[in-house]
Amino acid sequence: MALLNFRKREEKTGAGNAELEAFLKGYSIEVMPRTAAKVDDFRDLLPAGTRVYIAHIEGTPIEDMVATAKRIKDEGFDVMPHFPARIIKDKATLADWIAQYQGEADVKQGLILAGGVAKPHGDFDSSMQLLETGLFDQAGFTNLHVAGHPEPNLDIDPEGGRANTYAALDWKQEFSKRTDAEMALATQFCFEAQPVIEWVNEMQERGLNIPVHIGIAGPAKLQTMIKFAIACGVGPSLKVLQKRAKDVTKLLLPHEPTEILTDLAAHKAANPDFNITQVHFFPLGGIKTNANWAIDNGGENTAPVNAN
Fold first, then answer.
1. Which residue among 84, 88, 217, 245 is least enclosed by CB atoms within 10 Å?
2. What tens digit of pLDDT does each residue of 184-221 get?
3. pLDDT, tens digit, for every residue of 14-33?
4. 48 alpha carbon, distance to own chain's centre
5. pTM summary value
């Protein structure tokens, strides 16, 4: 009986919620070459115009990245490959990557980030160094996204707090004034709305107004979710998963993002100037699972291109 009650509770807060449907409009999703290859046709899963990020993991050949970008672009979607600074050897390599992406897939969007590699492969250590090359503007990029961290990140601020994080955001805010590209913060995922709300409000109070695309972990087994959360340094909101893990009935179900997104959607509806402008999904439990959750909860805003 508890299992049935739990399902009813999630359906009530998710499907049919007008605020949530509006909040999910224009969502983006992240893939890798190997996960994208498991999808026969993205038009069966994604709404028209969906931005698809392509994560570049260390060791993935640029040729695989470019081929994935071309395939997804050919299916009618905007592609935004990652440019991780620490695995790019030098400026010439960056220029070559940009040329390949544009020659094969007409790429004009990129997520510029430091990358998860401890030791840089070459000249670059940060996203700011990549942006300073000027190559993205020279190539006519229309959208340049950078990383955001709603919760303190010990890799960036080893002593705690946000001093280094905010210094980097201040630099990116100034850069946004001199680039022709539209900028946004694509954030790490969280599991609780309140820390996100407080972070976004704090940034606005500091004068940081780059639009926020909030990172959300798609539906996945609870054990998978906890593993990724620990690996990615997700801190305070991890307690939401730990609390859920104590309830044996909830261990039988995948963890879904219904609660955090419902809460953020309600806050956005009540505060239209709140600076989260889009949702970005990390499909930890699979692209199809994530896309189907969005279809079930987003109404017409998330209906796939090839909707029956």
1. 245
2. 999 988 888 999 999 999 999 999 999 999 999 999 88
3. 667 999 999 999 999 999 99
4. 18
5. 0.89
C-alpha separations of 94 from 11, 99, 115, 131 in Å = 46, 9, 14, 11
CATH 3.10.20.30 fits 23-299, yes or no: no
Q: Are 95 and 135 in contact (CB under 8 A)?
A: yes
Q: What does DSSP assign to residue 192?
A: -
Helices 91-105 and 62-74, axial angle in degrees (round to 10): 30
CA distances from 226 to 141, 235, 241, 257, 283 (A): 36, 11, 7, 14, 14
Contact status, residue 45 vs residue 307, Cβ threshold 8 Å? no
* Tally of CA atoms within 13 A in the half-sphere of 201 that contains its CB: 11
Which tokens is 21 given? Answer: 């449907």
